[in-house]
Automatic annotation (TrEMBL), chains A, B:
The keyword Oxidoreductase applies. This is Aldehyde reductase. One of its GO terms (cellular component) is cytosol. Belongs to the iron-containing alcohol dehydrogenase family.
Length: 384, 384
């Protein structure tokens, strides 16, 4: 096991009717900006629950944070915060809204040009407190300190992270998933699955707890994922997916183990250039990354094949091949395409994305920095 | 899955050489009381590492917190805190020292008779901040808000809990286990195992993540526990046990699931009356509790038999019987006796302990409150 430091200070309130606890989870003297996305919360009842819980608070709202939140949109919210002296940000949404709120919270307190937080890693020294009402389980952003924001003008999709923007609390009511469209449910399941894989499928460091926890999340997502699309999907299915998605990226399973993230880095570029959903890119890249890295990841691939997929291990090479196929089949089982051609894209993607990776310094990805630009190109060509 | 709220704000610093981070983990302007137990830290090098890390701090020390920390000893430390205005408590020890420090931290700020925190549940409104250098993985006390303190005069062993006494940080260096005696290592493994079981072996509520995490801890402890006694036990074995013990009682695996704790309640009384180590009592009671409750716990016993122990499930009753036998055999494999007679005790124990349970209001224990005093008596008689 590698040395690590770990803490997760986000207070999780999980279950039915938990949105009402906003009334006590946000200080009564706070001036709250409620930030959300395209407005689905107005038709599915979540907006009303939030408004009802905040009836004793002073609050305003900012709508329109888009999937892959843009710097441009976030800066409009920052203007609003400054104009009205909001001092608490309540994100009501999925990962995009939450990531946007993290940037808004930091940018509102930043002296200088906030774009430099993303472009130059300018240090964040303070941020407004953030709370979350999660409407889409997927990214884990509700209880971590990471954010990814896109610049619409420059086609950049860039991350920043600081404990200052980690949400104070996150409310997770699985019932919010009831009205989610198939595409968003699929995105959530796949995103959580690949987050787990990027922290699990590297090389063994004798970290038995972390491995077993990651395997538990993978098994849960594989068991429950395909069931969540039914109109009458049980509460337990939604609850298990929602809790898995949070646990997949709250720092715990990645503490003390090597991490990969090469699939994410390539995926981010695909989203920035072609506008694919984040999880759509992951489902395309991961199976090819597994195949390309199958020798470097051999031991963990075998462990995955045996413990998670319960495969026949008598022929190890066959088991690895089957494990990769079953991973791709799992993505299909949750209604997720896994090829560039499913989005009308072809071999032209490879050069374009490799150029992006190069521009962003992503010249050697993965736990061994073994995914060179040439390997990324090869992976992308296999993704067609 | 049941509704839950969960947060764990203790910052974990895990790994080799982490004790040196005390230098930055405790504010430089704090006046630190270092609290420890019988003095083994002076012979195994931990005291020196702590002193070296604190060389720029103002600090004093209090030695002699005993296993099952006593109210009487803790109150001596409280006097010292008050006399010298210490404002930070550093626990250097295992669960007993940490539990003692939690009481010291609360009692030092308590107006009135601190015994009432334990005896009457008097509310704790403030406490001194606590840090931990863990020297014995076992209780999980390093990152939770629970404490159990004994009154030597009245044979009471009573719990209290408040987020105010949850450690700010905990330093977990697996190398501290190198010089631990067999008895303490065995205690630690068994304690962590039974903590996990008390949150796992109840009835199913479709909480797949929690179940898989608990199973991961049980498997890790069963795999690594027997290996830890060798003089040259690998670092990874110690690390896996240490991290398992922390995760076993930091609130995570118990969030959203029913909990039992009946084995602990009976065990506490055995310790209070006969002075057995905490884990010794758990290893005696748990197998008999599993047998007594085998119908109420049937579904989870089968899940345990299948997933954790990988037993042949063709005959369910046989699998349950074997699962209980294998649990007891695991205790033996980590050098832990499992019978009252191993400590020179016999049937006389039953009446005495039942009287204690009755006196403390423990008349209906377990997830279904089904363990009546009569059942506790029956369990105790089977423990002989």
């Amino acid at each position: 096991m590698l040395n690590f430091s770990f803490v997760n200070p986000t207070h999780i309130h999980f279950g039915e009717q938990q949105i009402s606890t906003l009334a006590v989870n946000i200080p009564l003297d706070a001036k709250v900006l409620v930030v959300y996305g395209g407005g689905s919360i107005k038709s599915n009842g979540i907006y009303e629950q939030v408004a009802s819980a905040l009836e004793k608070h002073v609050w305003g709202e900012f709508a329109g944070v888009e999937p892959n939140p843009s710097y441009q949109t976030c800066m409009k919210a920052v203007e609003l915060v400054k104009a009205h002296n909001y001092d608490f940000i309540l994100a009501v949404g999925g990962g995009s809204v939450i990531d946007g709120c993290k940037f808004i919270a930091a940018a509102a307190c930043f002296e200088g040009e906030p774009w430099e937080i993303l472009s130059k890693g300018a240090p964040v020294e303070s941020a407004l407190p953030i709370g979350v009402v999660l409407t889409l389980p997927a990214t884990g952003s509700e209880s971590n300190s990471f954010s990814v924001v896109s610049n619409l003008q420059s086609n950049d999709k860039l991350p920043f992270a600081t404990p200052l923007v980690q949400p104070k609390f996150a409310i997770l009511d699985p019932n919010v998933m009831t009205t989610l469209p198939t595409r968003q449910l699929a995105n959530g399941v796949v995103d959580a699955f690949v987050h787990t894989m990027e922290q699990y499928l590297t090389y063994p460091v004798d970290a038995k707890v972390q491995d077993r926890f990651a395997e538990g999340l993978l098994m849960t997502l594989m068991e429950e994922g395909p069931k969540v699309f039914a109109k009458d999907a049980p509460y337990a299915v939604k609850a298990n997916i929602m809790w898995s998605a949070t646990m997949a990226l709250n720092g715990l399973i990645g503490a003390g183990v090597p991490q990969d993230w090469s699939t994410h880095m390539i995926g981010h570029e695909l989203t920035a250039v072609y506008g694919l959903d984040h999880a759509q890119t992951l489902a395309i890249v991961l199976p090819r990354m597994m195949m390309e890295q199958k020798e470097a990841k051999r031991e963990k691939l075998l462990q995955y094949a045996q413990r998670v997929l319960n495969l026949d291990m008598s022929d190890e090479d066959a088991a690895i091949k089957q494990a990769i196929e079953k991973t791709e089949a799992f993505f299909h089982s949750v209604q997720m395409p896994t090829r560039l051609r499913d989005y009308g894209l072809g071999e032209e993607v490879a050069d374009k994305i490799v150029a992006q990776l190069e521009r962003h310094g992503m010249v050697a990805l993965g736990e061994h920095q073994a995914v060179t630009l040439e390997k990324s190109r090869s992976i992308l060509l296999q993704c067609v």
